[in-house]
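User: I've been trying to design a sequence by hand for this structure and keep getting stuck. Would you show me what you'd pick, starting by listing the structure so we're on the same page?

Assistant: Good idea, let's start from the same input. This is the structure you sent:
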């Protein structure tokens, strides 16, 4: 059974930086496209960033472009989200998610997904709070 565990969420001040990690057990992440989403209280789940299986292609939500960077280390079966210039509106529960893409097509190694309903498995989330 696949299990994703997010970590790194803490209370941080406005303008600060933070790195979230997502580590998998029960599955090799190198077969999957991965993504980060977030959800603030009373709001819908929001796309943050996505990365292809190959790590050659990435995508970011408009609200985080230029401030956040997604990366992965398949050797460590992990994915990361480097967050900088944090704002109070970045406060949310952050989730990582995975979508198997191996065998889907000749270019599937470069596919990424921005919609939450594309993903098959999810972590439980890590809380990021940005304080002013």
């Amino acid at each position: 059974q696949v299990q994703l565990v997010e970590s790194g969420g803490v209370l941080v001040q406005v303008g600060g930086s933070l790195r979230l990690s997502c580590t998998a057990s029960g599955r090799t992440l190198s077969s999957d496209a991965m993504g980060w989403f977030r959800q603030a209280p009373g709001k819908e789940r929001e796309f943050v960033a996505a990365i292809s299986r190959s790590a050659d292609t990435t995508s970011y939500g408009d609200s985080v472009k230029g401030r956040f960077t997604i990366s992965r280390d398949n050797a460590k079966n992990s994915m990361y989200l480097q967050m900088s210039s944090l704002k109070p509106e970045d406060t949310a529960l952050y989730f990582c998610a995975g979508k198997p893409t191996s065998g889907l097509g000749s270019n599937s190694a470069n596919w990424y997904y921005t919609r939450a309903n594309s993903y098959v498995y999810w972590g439980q989330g890590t809380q990021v709070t940005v304080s002013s």
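That's my pick for every position. To get oriented when you compare it with your attempt: The longest strand covers residues 92-100. The CA atoms of residues 49 and 60 lie 4 Å apart.
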